[in-house]
Design goal:
By secondary structure, the chain is an alpha/beta fold. β1 (3-8), α1 and β2 (33-37) form a beta-alpha-beta unit. The chain has helices at residues 16-29, 91-103, 115-126, 151-172, 187-195, 210-222, 260-272, 292-311, 330-333, 345-352; strands spanning 3-8, 33-37, 50-53, 80-82, 85-86, 108-113, 131-135, 175-180, 200-202, 228-233, 245-247, 256-257, 276-280, 316-321, 324-329. The structure holds 6-O-phosphono-beta-D-fructofuranose.
């Protein structure tokens, strides 16, 4: 009987369970067994941690957040420790994982992960383990796919937060600064800022200055709008400045970005004398039910991943190339983050509405 393995790696993300469900179902219809490794890549090391996944494990998985297999974004497999800093997973770790993969009689390992986990998957592939990737991350920062799953749900969460802040900001004539995740890419803040009617959007790709933000607030005041909504990506930074972090990178994990909203709020309050509050959306963006867009994407990704295994197309990742899901080499997806083009259509659309990116004086 054919056996395949699956694991979820890196930070959790809405839709992981929907991918697991699709993989197990599509594999079962071919008569294959699926083994799920627990706790990310660590589950492949001794003492092995895995379980056989059957139809009984699948009830309700389409809409359940998190991952039933558990995950980890630190540990012995850490391959990324900072912005584009790749490190090689030690040979003894790769060797132990390969040995266990072979002992279990697996045909292929499906790795559901973002930049960090797919970097590990590529190293395992080069070490001789047949792998297939599925692109996951709320950050939407992977090359070679138009969208990763989890992103749409994170944006929906941020838009919901902006809608709620809008009414309270307007009632109290306050400025609110909402901080989203996204690491070194501004996709979540940009999409949510446009969909949620933010007045100012701060993203890492367009470093800001306070004069521009303050001018926008004053302009709104002059128009009789006594409240302002600012959305900032956690990776946003001042012109000539650096990222705001809560903890630096260590040998087994990336730097912990965060705190920019509080910083920006304090500066705005000091410069405008307007009451300014900050809200950090944090892991609310990663929890809970995936949106319908993410559920269908996860399902298509999961089914396509099983098809790649059947074709023996290893070292590849399923990717969204509308209207199709297509295989792309994992190598094409990793290494360089997909960031917001500073003069792309989304940014131009926002600017056309008068949305300020903190690096210009808008009228
Ligand atoms: O990559 C996903 C992500 O949620 C980032 O947006 C964020 O910077 C990071 O993970 C947070 O990681 P942790 O859950 O370890 O704090």
């Amino acid at each position: 009987m054919v056996r395949i393995g699956i694991l979820t790696g890196g930070g959790d993300c809405p839709g992981l369970n929907a991918v697991i469900r699709a993989v197990v179902k599509a594999a079962a219809r071919r008569g294959w067994e699926t083994l799920g490794f627990e706790g990310g890549f660590e589950g492949m090391l001794d003492p092995l941690s895995y379980r056989s996944l059957t139809a009984n494990d699948l009830d309700g998985l389409l809409f359940r957040g998190g991952t039933i297999l558990g995950t980890s974004n630190r540990g012995r497999f850490a391959a990324k420790t900072g912005h584009s800093e790749v490190r090689r997973v030690p040979d003894e770790i790769l060797s132990e994982a390969k040995q266990n993969f072979e002992t279990l009689g697996l045909r292929c390992l499906i790795v559901v992960g973002g930049d960090g986990s797919l970097t590990i998957a590529q190293q395992m592939y080069e070490y001789g383990v047949p792998v297939v990737g599925v692109p996951k991350t709320i950050d939407n920062d992977l090359q070679a796919t138009l969208q990763t799953f989890g992103f749409d749900t994170a944006v929906a969460c941020a838009v919901d937060a902006l809608d709620r802040l809008h009414t309270t900001a307007a009632s109290h004539n306050r400025v609110f600064v909402l901080e989203t995740m996204g690491r070194y890419a501004g996709w979540i803040a940009l999409y949510a800022g446009i969909a949620g009617g933010a007045d100012v959007i701060l993203i890492p790709e367009l470093p800001f200055n306070y004069e521009s933000i303050v001018a926008k607030i004053h302009q709104r005041e002059a128009e009789g709008k006594h409240f302002t909504l600012v959305i900032t990506a956690e990776g946003a930074l001042q012109q000539g400045g650096t990222y705001t972090t809560l903890a630096p990178a260590s040998s087994d994990r990336e730097a912990h970005l965060g705190g920019i909203a509080a910083r920006v709020a304090a500066e705005i309050e000091q410069r405008t004398a307007k009451e300014t509050r900050s809200v950090v959306l944090g892991h609310l963006q990663r929890g809970g039910m995936p949106t319908p867009v993410d559920r269908q994407l996860c399902t298509r990704f999961g089914v396509s991943a099983v098809e790649l295994v059947a074709e023996g197309k290893y070292g590849h990742m399923v990717a969204l190339h509308p209207p199709e899901i297509k295989p792309v080499p994992i190598l094409d997806a990793i290494g360089k983050l997909r960031t917001v083009p500073p003069d792309g259509e989304m940014v131009r659309t926002a600017r056309a509405l008068g949305i300020c990116f903190g690096n210009e004086i808008t009228m």
